[in-house]
Amino acid sequence: MKTLLLYVDKWFITGAINIDGMDKPLMLPNGEKRIWLFFHEDIANHRIEYGKSFERDYRDKKPHYFGDIFSLIDSEGKYFIRDEKNPEKMRGIFKASKIFRHFHQAIEDDGLVNTYISFSTDISIVARYLFIEELKNNEFDVKESVAEISYLALEESKKRGDFTDDGNYLALVATNDNLHYSLYKHCDNSFLPKGCSTLNGYGLDFRRRTLVEKVVEIVNNTTRFLSNTEEISQEYIRQDRFVDEWLAKIDNSNNKNNPVNISGITFAKAPQNQFSVTIIPKELDNWTDFNVGNIVNKIVEFVRENNI
């Protein structure tokens, strides 16, 4: 018997195929290990494509590129285009881009496929429902939309014998740019949820995130290109692709007190304008420590609010 197992996140879908109790990863025609949810409207050829390669153009706000798709499929008036005369509702983009066909090819079954799904906390209830409906309309028999990944991780840890005691457990999940944390009480051989919360933007490495925040802040203090929280958050994610180069330059500095110049910085709203920022490595370490301390304090406060 074949079963499709999916984990649906903000920027990607990953999964496995279970065949008679044995799991194997999905094999995709484009060679990627995940279904990256970045899309391109190839209007000239009347098709929709998906893949990691389209992320950069989406982050740069170029036309005909989509991302954060689950925030779009539960919004009215959001469409994609293969034929300019016939815009299509965003919920149909999974079929149009052949994601569903590739699921069938991976499991080598064109008939009704038993499917189990776990969703990221970032996916809204409405978007979950619409995605499940699209699956059902494309020969996927959704047996169950299963528990949160934090719950599944705790169950897996218990099964492996990592712990056996009753008590309270804190689970932290960082599968995308957001950090989710949840409390569970383990008793009577099961986990009972007690509360959950999110720190947007802190699912990434804290030193990377701190550097991105500081660079964006310094440039925006001069230019005022970014006028609201959403634009700033989007620019943080866009800048993350440059951080490895910045950190290498900072870490190669002989003296933590010497300023390091980072040049060629652009914003998506003004890609032709380039700026430079000066970072002192020791100050970056101090800013990172400060951010980490704030995050720890927020999680401690969350635990205390649950009377633990």
Give me the strand/helix succession.
EEEEEEHEHEEHHEHEHEEEHHHEEH
The profile of the biggest β sheet is: 6 strands, mixed
The low-confidence parts are none
What share of residues is helical? 25-40%
Mean pLDDT: 93
Q: Give me the number of helical elements.
A: 10
- Strand percentage: 25-35%
Radius of gyration: 22 Å
Structure in words:
It is a single chain. The protein is of the alpha+beta class and 308 residues long. 35% of the residues lie in helices and 31% in strands. The chain contains 10 helices and 16 strands. The protein has helices at residues 55-59, 70-73, 93-96, 99-107, 125-136, 149-159, 206-223, 229-239, 243-251, 281-305, and strands at 2-8, 12-19, 22-25, 35-36, 39-42, 47-50, 65-66, 79-83, 86-89, 113-119, 140-145, 167-173, 179-187, 190-199, 260-267, 270-279. Strands 1, 2, 3, 4, 10 and 11 form a 6-stranded mixed β-sheet that branches. A 3-stranded antiparallel β-sheet has the order 6-5-7. A hairpin with a 5-residue loop joins strand 12 (167-173) and strand 13. Helix 7 (206-223) packs across helix 8. The mean pLDDT is 93.
List its salient traits:
globular; 6-stranded mixed sheet; 308 residues; alpha+beta; 31% strand; 3-stranded antiparallel sheet
Per-chain topology:
Layout: E1 2-8, E2 12-19, E3 22-25, E4 35-36, E5 39-42, E6 47-50, H1 55-59, E7 65-66, H2 70-73, E8 79-83, E9 86-89, H3 93-96, H4 99-107, E10 113-119, H5 125-136, E11 140-145, H6 149-159, E12 167-173, E13 179-187, E14 190-199, H7 206-223, H8 229-239, H9 243-251, E15 260-267, E16 270-279, H10 281-305
Parallel strand pairs: 1-10, 10-11
Antiparallel strand pairs: 1-2, 2-3, 2-4, 5-6, 5-7, 8-9, 12-13, 13-14, 15-16
Helix pairs in contact: 7-8, 7-10
